[in-house]
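Q: Given only this backbone (319 positions), what sequence would you predict?
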């Protein structure tokens, strides 16, 4: 539904985004995650035809953003970081206006507005002036205008920025409810945002994609080769020495009966060897576990090192 290849945007000598490559399938909700200034909004603007890229290609709903911009706009609902609402207009009138802009046929316009109002929980405020609504409801109006023409693709740029905790939860639930009905790409620098709403994430840092995968697989892969904890009955010096001699063990820190074992990330099967060695040394293994990273830890690892991590699945590589 969204295909991006080699996408690059230059602002004079500065590179905003560089050689972005990703695919989003029909019905997916994908988080575009990165720190402020990483290139998220630039990518969103290119995908919606708001600005051209310097190099590369992008297709949305089967149409090339550069060759068929009108067709792309017909199939895209866009909610920029600042909702494009007219504060002096009544909600229903504004959505009718948005439907006209999206060329919704007159015979279908009333039903389209009503559907957008109901889907975004605006029924009880549809006759109110937008400027008199809370920021959370203005955000709902912005989402409704993106939905009013029933687009195949929704592009949401920081949809909950500036909202209070209750409003954030409400908007998240709205977005989650769109899964399967629309393909959604949601940009954010807020980690709980993507955890709560997205099925897959693309992490961008300094204009480059540094990882893309499901949250579970990404966290699992980043956990590989970090730290393991082993609790034993007999933390003998000879046993610890045997563990240290295993290729791939970087360091062992005894903490009473518990051993903190730092592992080389390239040693995928080292866990079995560690347990086998401890058993052979009669250390009496009571517990063995990996130190789990939170999404925050993963995010910090990916965005504080200048290294691109290929987190695509084998299926994605064949797309």
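A: Predicted residues:
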């Amino acid at each position: 539904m969204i295909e991006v290849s080699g996408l690059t945007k230059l602002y004079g000598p500065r590179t905003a985004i560089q050689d972005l490559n990703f695919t989003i399938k029909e019905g997916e909700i994908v988080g575009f995650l990165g720190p402020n200034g990483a290139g998220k909004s630039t990518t969103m603007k290119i995908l919606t035809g708001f600005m051209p890229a310097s190099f590369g290609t992008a297709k949305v709903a089967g149409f090339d953003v550069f060759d068929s911009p009108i067709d792309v706009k017909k199939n895209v609902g866009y909610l920029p970081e600042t909702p494009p609402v007219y504060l002096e207009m009544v909600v229903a009138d504004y959505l009718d206006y948005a439907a006209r802009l999206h060329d919704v046929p007159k015979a279908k316009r009333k039903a389209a507005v009503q559907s957008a109002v109901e889907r975004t929980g605006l029924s009880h405020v549809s006759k109110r002036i937008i400027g008199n609504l809370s920021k959370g409801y203005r955000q709902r109006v912005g989402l409704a205008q993106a939905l009013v023409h029933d687009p195949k693709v929704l592009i949401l740029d920081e949809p909950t920025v500036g909202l209070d905790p209750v409003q954030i939860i409400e908007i998240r639930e709205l977005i989650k409810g769109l899964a399967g009905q629309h393909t959604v790409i949601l940009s954010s620098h807020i980690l709980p945002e993507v955890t709560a709403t997205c099925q897959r994430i693309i992490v961008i840092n300094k204009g480059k994609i540094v990882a893309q995968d499901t949250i579970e697989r990404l966290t699992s892969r980043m956990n590989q080769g970090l730290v393991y904890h082993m609790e034993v009955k007999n933390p003998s010096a000879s046993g610890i020495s045997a563990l240290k001699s295993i290729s791939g063990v970087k360091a062992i820190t005894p903490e009473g009966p518990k051993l903190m074992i730092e592992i080389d990330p390239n040693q995928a099967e080292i866990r079995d060897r560690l347990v086998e060695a401890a058993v052979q040394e009669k250390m009496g293994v009571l517990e063995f576990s990996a130190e789990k990273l939170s999404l925050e830890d993963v995010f910090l690892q990916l965005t504080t090192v200048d290294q691109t991590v290929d987190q695509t699945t084998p299926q994605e590589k064949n797309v």
